[in-house]
Specification:
Elements (H helix, E strand, L loop, with lengths): L5 H10 L3 H24 L1
């Protein structure tokens, strides 16, 4: 992920310890990828 600091990455990884955190991380990643895809289409 672009522009992610080590501290932010660590926080995200520590959030994976529970299922809720993992689900949130996956949802964020999917939204992030969709956003990039949409931006590329309209360029």
């Amino acid at each position: 992920m672009a522009g992610l600091t080590a501290t932010e990455a660590e926080k995200k990884l520590s959030g994976i310890k529970d299922a809720e955190g993992l689900r949130n991380l996956i949802n964020q990643s999917i939204c992030y990828l969709l956003l990039i895809y949409i931006i590329k289409i309209f360029k």
